[in-house]
């Protein structure tokens, strides 16, 4: 009886181990975003006399990020991310390296609402030894592999008599759970 019980436990553990090896628990994510700023020349235009500029917001930069991490049932993600952000008006280029925590509960058959928070370090490029904290929060909607999002990010880097640099961005995110 002991041998039978021992053999049964060995088979059960082996089967569990093999099934665990077949499950994929990592992800890779790629984002592209455009940051916006309030239009300082709203209702006036120096470049085109007689024409009004009625836009509330104007593009103010580009950003792209990539990340790799672990996931649980495509609903919880934890990963290390990095990328590059470029702000046109401030002439600021930075590289954030941060830990990203994401929650993606299903709200329909194939749709999810995405909430991500990131915290890490930001490094300014071409400005000497400038670096500081990086924080971001993102809200989006999409499917398991594609998301449209709005993001607020902040670099605690002093520049041009400002204590920090922030941006509001809109973009798309591609995520693959096959890694």
- In round numbers, the mean pLDDT is 81
Instruction: List SSEs in N-to-C order.
Output: HEEEEEEEE
Total beta-strand segments: 8
Strand order of the largest sheet: 1-2-3-4-5-6-7-8
Short description:
The protein has 179 residues and is mostly beta strands.
Task: Present the secondary structure layout.
Layout: H1 2-22, E1 26-38, E2 57-72, E3 76-87, E4 92-103, E5 112-124, E6 131-142, E7 146-155, E8 165-176
Antiparallel strand pairs: 1-2, 1-8, 2-3, 3-4, 4-5, 5-6, 6-7, 7-8
Structure description:
By secondary structure, this protein is mostly beta strands. It is built from one helix and eight strands, in the order αββββββββ. Strands 1-2-3-4-5-6-7-8 form an eight-stranded antiparallel beta barrel. Strand 5 and strand 6 form a beta hairpin. The chain is flat and about 90 Å long. Residues 16-20 have low confidence and may be disordered.
Structural descriptors:
8 strands; eight-stranded antiparallel beta barrel; 1 helix; mainly beta; 179 residues
